[in-house]
Amino acid sequence: MTPVLDQLTTREEAVLLVYARGGGLREAAGKLQITELQARRARDRARLKLGAANITEAAVKLVIARTAKP
The whole model's pTM is what? Predict the structure, then answer.
């Protein structure tokens, strides 16, 4: 795992992946079978942990980390 991925919980990573694929809050909540509030909190925590200015930047950091070779 990369340091970026080590910072995130499974839920935070899953929510960011939905955003990275063009989805939004409702889609993330539906796919993960959680409430929109839980999805919003996971999204916001992930953004803060990654030091991203916005959700798009956080999603990009996640995608880069997942595609980086160890």
Answer: 0.88
**CA 50-60-35 angle, 5° bins:** 70
State the angle between helix axes of 55-67 and 36-50 in degrees (0 to 180), rounded to the nearest 10: 70
Residue-range domains of the chain with CATH: 3-67 (1.10.10.10)
Neighbours of 52 (CB within 10 A): 17
Report how far residue 35's alpha carbon sits from residue 48's, in angstroms, rounded to the nearest whole number. Answer: 20
Q: Tens digits of per-residue pLDDT, 1-26?
A: 567 788 899 999 999 999 999 999 99
DSSP string, 13-38: HHHHHHHHTT--HHHHHHHHT--HHH
